[in-house]
Amino acid sequence: MSILIQQATILTMQDNESPFMGDIRIEGDRIVQIAGHIAVQPGDDVLDGRSKLAMPGLVNAHQHSPMSLLRGFSDDLKLMDWLDRKMLPAEARMTPEDIYWGAKLCIAEMIRSGTTAFADMYIHMNEIAEAVLETGIRASLTRGMVFMEEDGGRRLKEAVDLVQRWSGKANGRITTMFGPHSPYTCPVEPLREVIAMAVRDDIPLHIHLAETIEEVQKIHSRYNMTPTEYLVEAGMFEQTHVLLAHAVHLSASDVRRLKGMRGGVAHNPVSNLKLGCGIAPIEAMRTEGITVGLGTDGAGSATTLDMFEEIKAACWLQKLDYGDPTRLPAPDVLHMATRGSAKLLSVHDEVGMLAPGYKADLILIDLAKPHLQPIHNVESLVAYSVNGADVHTTIVDGQILMRDRKLLTLDEDELYREVNVRAKRIVEGI
Ligand SMILES: CSC[C@H]1O[C@@H](n2cnc3c(O)ncnc32)[C@H](O)[C@@H]1O
Ligand SMILES: [Zn+2]
Questions:
Q1: Distance (Å, rounded) from C-alpha 169 to C-alpha 284?
Q2: CB 3.0–4.6 Å: which of 94, 206, 343, 422 could bond 177 by disulfide?
């Protein structure tokens, strides 16, 4: 199967390369050529790129995909109340089939808004993997582990099974991590056990860190440390790649401690804003050379999975925090949402950039709209003006998942019927 995109404005996200007009040839799952003009070959599926911008698909570095079923069910609460009183009781009622449909709802929204890969942490991960397999998106899947009660090793066994069963599946679209949920739900013994297993088998870790001031207080009263120090003391950063979600409440010395870490931080500005968590010190992390990517968190908290909203919110927060509009400029935030997040998912050697040899994970944005004209600066336009509804075409692994805004791997009517019935049953009486 070959695809030829003709005469698009191309933003490759390669270092020091300005946007230019040209063609992109895709063969199988890879980009094979990018040039000013590429001849059509027999059998090519030709996509008209005129008035469109081709860029790498966005990578959502922190998600809880089935929480799309809980979007709008419980808003305007503090994180711990929201989790304990609303989310956990609802999750206890979710069947594996609910998880499957919730993940599909989430994936539909992501494909529609230009996300081509995501990092997920949840329960019943086999069903999420099935949804990823069917829909064609790329994902790094993690069985989230809360160790506050003895479970006879069930969660850890499920995490190991996920890795063994799904790593590298779907032509490499599916990868896996281990997911101890957070410092406040993982006492040191099981945490050390997971870290040792991750080191032994070279499996990356995905964990929430320092999301709220309450978490900082809790960890301080339990261990007389910051949440970051707690993970450092447990040996988390010694030999493993770690994806840290949130990292809002880091002291200056916490940031220095993370310098040189493998992996990095998934910044979730919309969720942090909505839950009133605080502003993550993104500019300080970047100064220390820490990789920062962007994520949404689950739709239960963020409400939207549109990464273009995260891009805007990330810029606005750093500018506001420093009282300085030069902070987190457009090219840097786009780097975070593509190459930065791809690094957090350990796929940066083939995802996050448009280049020959890279995976064909890309989007076409329709620029023929009043809010996207005139075009002075493509990167500014993408960061500050584009939104998810402007995405015209989404391609992952060389497969077109959305064309002219029609989803090709999902039946939306069936999807909306299923999720409405299931969502109502799950939340009833909570
Ligand atoms: C055990 S699977 C993952 C677990 O995480 C919960 N969750 C969703 N959003 C957040 C958040 O912002 N901080 C901490 N935990 C969160 C989700 O409800 C699942 O139970
Ligand atoms: Zn989360």
A1: 37
A2: 206
